[in-house]
Amino acid sequence: MRNIWTILWKDLRLEWRTKESLSAMLVFGLLVIVIFNFSFNPSPAEVRQFGAGLLWIAYTFAGVLGLNRSFAAERENGCLQSLLMAPIDRSSLYLGKWIANLVFMLAAEAVILPLFLLMFNVPIGSHIGRLVLITFLGTLGFTCLGTLFAGVSMNTRMREVLLPVLLFPVSLPLLLWAVESTGAIFQSAFLDPMIAHGQATTAARASDGNALKFLVAYDMIFGAVCTLVFGFVVED
Amino acid sequence: MKSGQLSRVYWGALIVVALAMLVNIYLALAWVQPDAKQGDVGRIFFFHVPGAWVGLLSFLLVSVASIGYLIRRTQSWDRVAVSAAELGVVFITITLITGPIWAKVAWGIWWTWDARLTSTLVLFLLFCGYLMLRRYIPEPSTRAKLSAVVGIVSAVDVPIVFFAIRWWRTQHPQPVIAGEEGSGLGERESIAFFYSFGVFTMLYLVLLLQRVHLARLDDEVEVLKRGRTANGPRAAHAAWLLPFALALGLGVGATPAVAQEPAPNNGSPTESQDVAQLREQLETELRRAKTEADSLEVDRAQLDEKNSRAIRHMMIAYATVWGLIILYLISVSRRQSKLRREIDELSGGR
Amino acid sequence: MSETDDATSATSASDGWAIEVHELRRYFGTIEVLSGIDLKVRQGEFVTLLGRNGAGKTTLLNILGGLLKASEGEAWVQGLDVRRQAVRIRPELGWLSHQPGFYGDLSAHENLVFFARLYDLPDWRRAVEAALEQVGLASRAKHRVRTFSRGMLQRLAIARILVHDPPILLLDEPHTGLDLPAIELLNGLLERFRGERTILMTTHDLAIGASLADRIIVLSEGRIMAELPGSQDVADLRRQYLEILAHEVGA
Fold first, then answer.
1. What are the domain boundaries of chain A?
2. How far does C116 lie from chain A, in Å, by closest CA?
């Protein structure tokens, strides 16, 4: 437990010094949103329909940039070896790294999300709580797999290319559920005022099915699996 | 045994499979009556569906071999994993190519984001990622270890992916296609069908053997390049797979004989679960296609026109299937002879 | 210091060997890198491993440190099995290689604090200060490691060992790339550690091997080819070593 915190502290400190991945993630995430706007020039109805997908594209593309950097410091001049020589459990190394990546990605999302809501005039209102929850759960699972695969691709040539190629197909269920429930939230956000004015009925609202439950289950399954197999990635 | 040579048993098996394949082609193209509802294009299924089954089998093998490698740490497990993954890509490609050719005739569209199609595509992408990862790691034991980790994560993930996509499709019901209860396979159809399952499985295992052998040659070259004698953990010769291959092939092929008598549609309890599942899949597929054809009220001339188009499509599909398999065989044997030459050069130079 | 000593005597009381290796084999893929190593190192002994690149020296050290798993055979460090008790072995080990292994954007002090906390030391604050003082880096403690020269980095790596003060040192070509003052400092330190700690060092520098080691072991193609006594004439050692290597090429 203490070791997890020590590793997390180290990663946060390093990032705080350089701000390399955070700034890259932020700028890239915003670029995705801007490009979306130019390519589709969406109306509110279209935002209601496609906004959730866009938001998650911005999150995950930005996230991959950050994840690609997450083992950069360890690779440099043999840090990983000194780290592995220290008496720490491999799972606490993984957990420390995971939480660090989670914090970075959430930090980037904390800027991307409000700007998105603002720029596309999403009347989010009281739904913000649920939106934040979904964002957290989705990011949790994404960084969980992302940290493992960043460790895997760390040892390869072409790691920047390889990480998304490995990560996206595997995290597909997660993205599916996250987009689905975010979409349901946007639907209600846009429709609630209309329902109040009698312009639409509650039947028009989409439900997110069981997506939330599935997200939690997915996070738990892969949290366990990745923690268990990470040892194989760094040791031989 | 000289590991540079494939054993005679292997060549025997290859000939048996080739003959069995000819029989399969005859059964599928001539012996089975054209499907009442969809005509000749339905014959694609005798290649399309077994291809998908073999793709799933590959995935299972990769998972098992990955776990095996992490436990035993012997190179032979890794060879099985890489071979299965590569073959998986070949056979899923077959499925992904023949599927749209059929769909164009039956549904009028090349592609739809239906649950099964999407899942197959994702499986294909997973395999591609796996093989790409392997390409970028030069050191053999690191490569084996890291790809085994990815294999295990995918093993956990693939069922979830399939489930998620199915769930997602029910969220977005499909406009075009709907299933209908009650229709089944004709007697000849189901015999030919299970026969082609058996033959494809055998073909797959024989190809797997060949590919594993290629991987062995690869390792040998590695050893020679490093100028070391390999007294590595003795890798069991993959020939032990052969009887297994034949048994499994025959088993799958023989299933309808057992299943046929009492109730052709329900499947007998002796059927393995995979087969039952596939049979179910196949039945819905056929049902779906038949309904589609049913709903088209066409006169005879139109039907003939449609049929000849269907035959053209089907021929293309066949050409693709065999072209792909033969191309793959050629590529494997070319790689093999290249490695053999390299081995000769390296061992001659010492 | 006294704490680790107690721990040492408790765990290794069984047979008194600091390092014990039995029929150790390791494959990378199908390639055999270690082909049956048998080695016993006494408490407080200084053993130097010689051999050309790829002879398996680093692999052996990595297995003892628990970074690599042995394919076959067994190894014990302080009486602990490297396969099963790696987490308990690591506090007993100090690791120094030609790669410093520090985070460039953290200061020297922060780097040492990070590692000290991983080693779970009771009084890490004082230990870090003392170690920095000992290697003469106290004045640069607040500077980022990225600005350090190669020699300073190696001094910092030595300080990392001093912080947790282990009874066994694994040194993987620690002299590579050092300037003369840094080599002097390192040798002075090794001289001081002699007899006090068990040291297993790989090197290509015969002079250092000859002057410091109690015993010199020559590895070739994953096997122990010869054992030579340490503390002998450098020219003598060079002649013997070349003879062994020539024999290896001829075979």
1. 2-234
2. 9
